[in-house]
Design a protein that fits this description.
The protein is an alpha+beta fold. It contains 4 helices and 12 strands, in the order αααββββββββββββα. The strands form 2 sheets. Strands 1-2-5-4-3-12 form a 6-stranded antiparallel β-barrel. This is Cell shape-determining protein MreC.
């Protein structure tokens, strides 16, 4: 009986030792693998993104499917209301675009048509490899680089030609995009029927803001435009913070696109203004 007990006790101790040894070995392997990944990312970033682009895309697809599944249980009345709001905004944008096209036609009649030879506005299409939270907030990683003709300072557009940011660093096959919503990024904007000019500043987490004189005739819902090939809508005013003791008021601007669900972008050269805006941003990062 005593011999049987000792055998069972020894077997239990042996099993525990094996388990602890396995855990220790697994921990060392995980640590070594993590160090290897960090070295790969910092020493050969282009190779890193080539290897892990499929992983990011699979994770993104899974996240999208999960979100759609859970959203399907949402309140249908709320969805209908949101659809109506979006439809109204689209109508407003269409009317604004028609007015701008008429202005452009009038200007061309007065000044003459600009030369378009060699000026392609189609740009370079690129898939989005990583977006927050895979990439730092207010940044994107896109799957085209210097090999495709992308250069630092070029402007990046989302669906419908909506400007979203600037190329901040370039690798051979990948590029890093700093969004206009990045803190301290600035770009000139226009708002209101009289096209009041003001500076739009990134507020972080996909949001924009601007300071404007209290006397300005603006309202919640007004479309905000930025210069480009024409006047391009970048977002709309969702809130106005008005302090009676201040000569100015703060506009809270919602981007026209959901910056964290973009799958494709177009990159093209639009001049030096945006590059200067990028250079003056206080927080600029580059691809590791």
């Amino acid at each position: 009986m005593k011999k049987t007990f000792l055998m069972k006790r020894n077997a239990l101790l042996s099993s525990t030792s094996v388990s602890l040894g396995t855990l220790a070995c697994t921990g060392r392997f995980a640590l070594a693998f993590s160090v290897l990944l960090l070295l790969l990312r910092f020493l050969t970033p282009n190779l890193f993104w080539h290897l892990f682009t499929p992983v990011f895309r699979i994770a993104d697809a899974f996240s999208t499917e999960s979100r759609l599944f859970f959203n399907s249980f949402g309140d249908t009345a709320e969805l209908a209301s949101q659809n109506e709001i979006l439809s109204n905004k689209n109508t407003v944008l269409a009317n604004e675009n028609q007015a701008l096209l008429k202005k452009e036609t009038d200007l061309e009649a007065i000044l003459g048509s600009p030369a378009t030879v060699g000026n392609s506005v189609s740009g370079i299409s690129a898939g989005v490899v990583a977006r927050p939270p895979e990439s730092p907030y207010d940044t994107l990683v896109i799957a085209e680089g210097s090999r495709a003709g992308i250069a630092r300072g070029q402007e990046v557009f989302g669906n419908g030609g909506v400007p979203i940011g600037v190329v901040s660093s370039v690798l051979t096959d990948f590029s890093h995009v700093t969004l206009f919503s990045s803190p301290n990024m600035t770009i000139t904007g226009f708002v209101g029927k009289s096209n009041i000019s003001f500076l739009i500043t990134g507020a972080g987490a996909g949001a924009l803001q601007a300071s404007i004189a209290r006397s300005a005739n603006v309202a919640v819902g007004d479309i905000v435009f930025v210069p480009g090939p024409g006047m391009l809508p970048i977002g709309s005013i969702t809130r106005i913070d008005d302090d009676p003791s201040s000569p100015s008021m703060t506009l809270r601007i919602m981007p026209a696109l959901n910056l964290f669900s973009i799958s494709w972008v177009v990159v093209r050269e639009t001049g030096t203004t945006l590059f200067d805006a990028f250079l003056h941003a206080s927080s600029t990062s580059s691809l590791p």
